[in-house]
Amino acid sequence: MRACDLYASIDTLGSVASSDLVEASGLAASRTTDDVLWSHNDSRGGPLLHAFSSAGADLGAFEVPGAFALDWEDIAAGPGPDGSGSFIYIGDMGDNFGIRGGDITIWRVPDVNPASIDNEFPDAYGFVVTMPDGPYDAEALFVDPVDRKLLVATKSSDVTLVFSIDLEPSESPAPMELVATLFLDAEVSGADMSPDGGLIAFRGYRTVWMWDRLPGESVADALAREPCEAPSPEERQGEAITIDDSWSYFTVSEGSNPDIYFVQARR
User: Is the dihedral of CA 167, 94, 228, 37 positive or negative?
Assistant: First the structure.
């Protein structure tokens, strides 16, 4: 049985109440606090992460100290560089006009309970990485908790390139490694990996692609197989997906007060 066989119905849990989150471009389910989803605007607003419940209740907006938001495109939850703790990784990596030259900035903040902080995260760390032979537009980021890698997928209707780097490179800017070349015939607008590292999901505007990752496999090995397609909500502009520890997944779209969709895994 493949991962996509675990899913059937798509449920609507609520809608995002905050009027400030209007271009939800990334989504991450907290690994430390029950019923907390983190998101951010695309190219509007400052360096803020927005927290809300699965029903859409507004849990606040919090500044990433020292950060600048040029074009934040995706976020992902995962461990720290040594494999411990839980953090949110933010990809400032959108490049519609090819101005970055392949360099993108990654920010990391602790995955805290939003009720425990006031207006900003207690700390943040940022570093620059380079996708070779760029520039590329990229809107999908995920964290491999097994091999402790950060991965970025480019956005193109012709070919999707997947690059990898350590969760905390020894230099900045640091070169990423190309680990997969995919032909999906559609643009990849978001991505995530399950907390146990066994499932990879890519989000397109009309599609959710999935890959099972077997024990002992690298991400490159898993992505070398043909993906299956899981249920995809009909959304205005779906760019955000996150997988929880049960392999169920959430999606939201850009736009004002978007619906929050939930696809439960039958495990």
Answer: positive
Residue pair 119/83 in contact by the 8 Å Cβ criterion: no
Distance, C-alpha 60 to centroid of its chain: 20
Check: pTM over 0.85? Answer yes or no: yes
φ, ψ dihedrals at 182, nearest 5°: -120, 150
Alpha-helix runs per DSSP H in 184-241: 219-223
Per the rule left: phi > 0, alpha: psi between -120 and 50, beta: everything else, 187 is beta
Bridge partners of 72, per DSSP, are 92
Note the pLDDT tens digit of each residue in 49-79.
999 999 999 999 999 999 999 999 999 999 9
Determine contact, residues 88/76, Cβ cutoff 8 Å.
yes
Peptide bond connecting 135 to the previous residue in cis, omega within 30 degrees of 0: yes
